[in-house]
Amino acid sequence: MNWTIYLAGEIHSDWRTELIDAINQRNLPVLCTGPVIDHDASDNCGTAILGEEDSNFWKDRKGAGLNAIRTRSLIKQADVVVVKFGEKYKQWNAAFDAGYAAALGKPLIIVHPEEFDHALKEVDEAAQAVARTPDQVVEIMKYVITGQISD
Q1: Please, which pLDDT band fits residue 1 given cuts at 50, 70 and 90?
Q2: Is the domain defined by 3-36+76-146 classed in CATH 3.40.50.880?
Q3: CA-based nearest residue to 128, from 148, 101, 147, 109
Q4: Is 26:142 a contact under the CB 8 Å cutoff?
Q5: Closest residue by Cα to residue 81 from 14, 133, 27, 35
Q6: 30: exposed, middle or buried (C-beta count within 10 Å: 0-12, 13-18, 19+)?
Q7: What span, in angstroms and rounded, lies between the C-alpha atoms of 144 and 84?
Q8: Any bridge partners for residue 32, and if so which?
Q9: pTM, to two decimals
Q10: 6, 82 in Cβ contact below 8 A?
Q11: Distance (Å, rounded) from C-alpha 11 to C-alpha 15?
Q12: What is the number of other CB atoms lying within 10 angstroms of the CB of residue 138?
C-alpha cells in the first residue's frame, strides 16, 4: 500500500523537508501533501485571482476560500494527517485542520513542544499520537507501515 500523509501546520520552519527527507531515506511508500507554504502566495491568492478588496477582511476571506479548496481536498484524500504547531505564531489554521481531520475520522499525529501540552490538550486527545519531532513522526509511520521498530 502507498500511504498519503497530509502535512498541516506551521509554515515558518523546514520541518516538512526534514520529514520528507527522513521518509525517503527509509524508503517508505509515502506521498506527502500539504498546504501552499509560500506565505505571500497563500495570503494574496484570492485578490490576485478574483480581484482587489478595500478591506483586509474580504481580502483574507477570498484567500482563505481558495486555500480551503486545496486543504479540504487533500485532507480528505490523506491516510494520515500530521499537524505541527510552531513555536513562533499562534496556529489557528493548524487547530482547524486537526479538528477537520478528526471530524473526518482521519488518523492524526500531532507535533508540538512540551510547553504546549496544556494549551493543546483537546487537540492531543483527538490524536492517535503526539510527537515532539518530525523524526518521531517518521518512526511512527515506519512502524505503522512495516510493523518494525528501529533499533
Answers
A1: confident
A2: no
A3: 109
A4: yes
A5: 35
A6: buried
A7: 19
A8: 5
A9: 0.95
A10: yes
A11: 8
A12: 24
